[in-house]
Amino acid sequence: MTDLVQLERRGVVAHLTMNAPGSLNALSDAMLAALKARFTELGTDGSVKVVVLKGAGKAFCAGHDLKEMQAGRQAPDKGRAYFADLFFRCAEVMQMIPALPQPVIAEVHGIATAAGCQLVASCDLAVAAEGTRFGVNGVNIGLFCSTPMVALTRNVPRKVAFEMLTTGEFIDASRAREVGLVNRIAPHEALAAEAGRLAETLAAKLGAAVKIGKRAFYDQMTLDLAAAYEHTAAVMVENMLWRDTEEGISAFIEKRKPDWAV
């Protein structure tokens, strides 16, 4: 099953490739299970400092597998139980990404539509090829992208999200960067190199600091202002007491490279 999401380790960077090009890497039942397995594996792998997620073939991800969804209607309940389980499993996978200790970079090309756009929005960072199109276009077939909306509205301004959701229109990579869905854009032939450079930049930092910082980043977003400052101050106190942080500050003051233990 995990062959659907191939894993390649390049030093401390793990590259995950959704490998179902014939379906434009649709989030089938099997694909969701494979992603869950890979994220579970990486979540306990202390040797990996950054994860890059991409899709094989012509596209990053075209969203849910509509043929599987239609087949689910054949059940006596018209698919109610299957659909409830499907959206639960998809949400579970999406939530695993911010919960991972490593930063996750989406390397996006072709299209990222519906739950595929949700997948990009769920990643911590995104690099897109020029010409990539993004959409939450379920409304065009009578299915409002309500679950993709959750991740999308946590990335882009409210009116931009609502326009995308209600018109079903696509935005290109430049617009996606403008509204905050994408961090960087590269020519298609330079996409992998650009994503790799970003991954290596993150991997060069103190891994423990990035890990504690990522957790604090998402935790504080759910708190009111005073509680967010209280929480992050406690995180910084813990961070400051580390040996490697003391060494990093000393190295900066002394204008030398830090001698980190990890």
TrEMBL record:
<keyword id="KW-0276">Fatty acid metabolism</keyword>
<dbReference type="InterPro" id="IPR014748">
    <property type="entry name" value="Enoyl-CoA_hydra_C"/>
</dbReference>
<dbReference type="InterPro" id="IPR001753">
    <property type="entry name" value="Enoyl-CoA_hydra/iso"/>
</dbReference>
<dbReference type="GO" id="GO:0006631">
    <property type="term" value="P:fatty acid metabolic process"/>
</dbReference>
<dbReference type="InterPro" id="IPR052377">
    <property type="entry name" value="Mitochondrial_ECH-domain"/>
</dbReference>
<keyword id="KW-0443">Lipid metabolism</keyword>
<comment type="similarity">
    <text>Belongs to the enoyl-CoA hydratase/isomerase family.</text>
</comment>
<comment type="function">
    <text>May play a role in fatty acid biosynthesis and insulin sensitivity.</text>
</comment>
<dbReference type="GO" id="GO:0016836">
    <property type="term" value="F:hydro-lyase activity"/>
</dbReference>
<dbReference type="InterPro" id="IPR029045">
    <property type="entry name" value="ClpP/crotonase-like_dom_sf"/>
</dbReference>
<keyword id="KW-0809">Transit peptide</keyword>
<keyword id="KW-0456">Lyase</keyword>
<protein>
    <recommendedName>
        <fullName>Enoyl-CoA hydratase domain-containing protein 3, mitochondrial</fullName>
    </recommendedName>
</protein>
<dbReference type="Pfam" id="PF00378">
    <property type="entry name" value="ECH_1"/>
</dbReference>
